[in-house]
């Protein structure tokens, strides 16, 4: 259990700081925590489905914020207690990473080992879509479980999701390292993985590094700026393969600093 304690320590991004007392008051059951998070956050990409105008979202909508700042924004929009469900127009708007970070932060505050994971989900569109979830240790089952705090009733119905979002099946979410190794073994085509129109092994590489970083307390990094890479730079050089294989095989190993080669 000593190794698991590593995941009860807050990172700079997951530390709720002045909101720690509020975390202690929340229930312990992961499904209920998912419901609470859904009542204060809304995903920018699905804004229209919640009746919001995407053109009016502010700058924080697509930027992963430290959880203390995210909850500051939640209360600035609506000062009710966290467990009170807000209408969509009074929720803080973020991305899947914000949902995963919120759940990880709450669970860590309750000394439950939890960590954000970067990989790919099969339950949004055809193929495997770039996605972030929370992975938490369940003491009763003695194993890690996946929870997608973003999946509310609307998304379950729209995407015909049948599983419990508090216990996402392992064949529905694939950590980036596993995706990379499947591509390298040619058991899955790299173009099955991506973000929107950006697909292939280069994008899998992006998430391999991001998953390695997040497992070392770095939920955000320069790798989030992948859109800045020119199309001519979206490639993998042969000399990169050994390191990427290593990170994919053991993403939780001690941090290896990898700098994006498209940034000045």
UniProtKB/TrEMBL annotation:
State the InterPro entries in the record: Papain-like_cys_pep_sf, Transglutaminase-like
Give all residue intervals belonging to the Transglutaminase-like domain: 91-145
Q: What is this protein called?
A: Transglutaminase
Q: Which species does the entry assign this protein to?
A: Rhizobium hidalgonense
């Amino acid at each position: 259990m000593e190794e698991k304690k590593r995941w009860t320590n807050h990172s700079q991004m997951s530390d709720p700081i002045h909101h720690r007392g509020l975390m202690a008051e929340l229930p312990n059951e992961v499904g209920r925590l998912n419901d609470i998070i859904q009542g204060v956050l809304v995903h920018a990409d699905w804004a229209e489905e919640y009746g919001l105008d995407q053109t009016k979202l502010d700058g924080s909508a697509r930027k992963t914020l430290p959880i203390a700042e995210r909850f500051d924004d939640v209360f600035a929009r609506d000062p009710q207690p966290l467990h009170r469900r807000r209408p969509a127009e009074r929720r803080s708007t973020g991305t899947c990473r914000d949902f995963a970070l919120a759940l990880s932060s709450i669970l860590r505050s309750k000394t439950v080992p939890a960590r954000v994971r970067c990989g790919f989900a099969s339950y949004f569109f055809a193929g495997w879509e770039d996605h972030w979830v929370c992975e938490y240790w369940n003491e009763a089952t003695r194993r890690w479980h996946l929870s997608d705090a973003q999946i509310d009733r609307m998304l379950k119905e729209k995407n015909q999701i049948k599983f419990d979002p508090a216990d996402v099946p392992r064949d529905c979410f694939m950590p980036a390292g596993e995706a990379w190794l499947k591509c390298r073994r040619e058991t899955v085509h790299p173009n099955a993985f991506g973000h929107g129109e950006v697909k292939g092994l280069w994008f899998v590489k992006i998430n391999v590094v991001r998953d390695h970083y997040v497992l070392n307390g770095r939920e955000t990094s320069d790798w989030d700026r992948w859109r800045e890479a020119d199309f001519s730079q979206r490639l993998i050089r042969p000399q990169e393969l050994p390191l990427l294989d290593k990170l994919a095989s053991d993403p939780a190993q001690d941090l290896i600093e990898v700098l994006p080669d498209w940034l000045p």
